[in-house]
Amino acid sequence: MIIVTGAAGFIASALVGTLNQQGITDIAIVDDFSKEQKSNNWKSKKHTTKIDRSQFVDWFEKNAQLVDFVFHIGARTDTTEFDWNVFVKLNLEYTKSIWTICSKHGIPMIYASSAATYGDGSLGYRDSHDIVEQLQPLNPYGRSKNEFDKWALKQTQQPPFWAGLKFFNVYGPNEYHKGRMASVILHTFETVRKTGKMQLFRSHNPNFEDGMQLRDFVYVKDVVSVILHLYQTKQQCGLYNVGTGHAQSFLDLANATFHAMGLRPNIEFIDMPLDIRDKYQYFTEADITKLRSSGYEKPFHNLRQGVADYVKNYLIPNKYI
């Protein structure tokens, strides 16, 4: 049996859908399934067991002998949440419990870290273990992810294989429930349908023009492909960046969305909200040297390719992976 936590969420539901497409259905899905807006992410997926997030650790301790692999993708991911205790409970202590059980019973695991661990990027975006202690995330979410990475690297008792994946800016199907935290592609699509135009944040950094804030945007299908590569090969344990290795601007992203919708771009700029302005990353770009050295050779969707597939094959027909 395979465990997938966060199965009602974005990346994990896409992972379950892809596993199903490959004929894998002996899956225990784990999440808080009470939220109706997330139900379409999991109700049509094939699985053998459904476990509430609050009951999973107890279940896992009693049924570890049934489990072959754990994908711990579930997490509190809201970068605008500033209650540290929320992240300690859901991201840090919860993940430690899963790691401990996997280590005790010899179960390999992959867990979700985040590019938010890199903070302002002053130390670069290398997934080197040497810099983890020095990283200074800009928000409690990123801090919680980095604290677990630091803890994991210090453990003498480890799963037989483990990988912590530093996801960069993931976009794609199954993010419909994420609200403010959804990708700018989804926001652009919905806003353009309603108003015919899109608003992007004005730059408050003199080194960047409006709309030219840069991100490593990575399509969720590529993210799932990387996850499955590491699951199948189980080579070098450690932290891995999951991005394209090529940063592009929010203006590029918005233009690609208009293009995929068959419309001429109509973009205006607004001030960035004060609550995120001093914690905003203006540039991220994954160094994927380690991922490539693990044998992952597939090309990533460029922004125009990924956005076109997302808009035409999922957003317009309102489909899910």
Detailed description of the structure:
By secondary structure, the chain is of the alpha/beta class. Helix content is 37%, strand content 16%. It has helices at residues 10-21, 53-63, 84-105, 140-154, 184-195, 220-233, 250-260, 274-277, 289-293, 303-315, and strands at 2-5, 27-31, 49-52, 69-72, 109-112, 162-167, 169-171, 198-201, 214-215, 217-219, 238-242, 248-249, 267-270. The strands form 4 sheets. The chain has a 7-stranded parallel sheet, sandwiched between helices. A two-stranded parallel ribbon has the order 7-10. The longest helix is centred in the first third of the chain and has 22 residues, at 84-105. The model has no long low-confidence stretch (mean pLDDT 95).
The Rg value, from CA coordinates, equals 19 Å
Percent of residues in β-strands = 15-25%
The percent range for helix content is 25-40%
Anisotropy-based shape = globular
SSE arrangement, N to C: EHEEHEHEHEEHEEEHEEHEHHH
The tally of strands reads 13
Residue-averaged pLDDT, rounded? 95
- Number of helical runs? 10
Structural class: alpha/beta
Strand order of the largest sheet: 3-2-1-4-5-6-11
- List low-pLDDT spans: none
End-to-end Cα distance, whole Å, is 21 Å
Largest sheet report: 7 strands, parallel
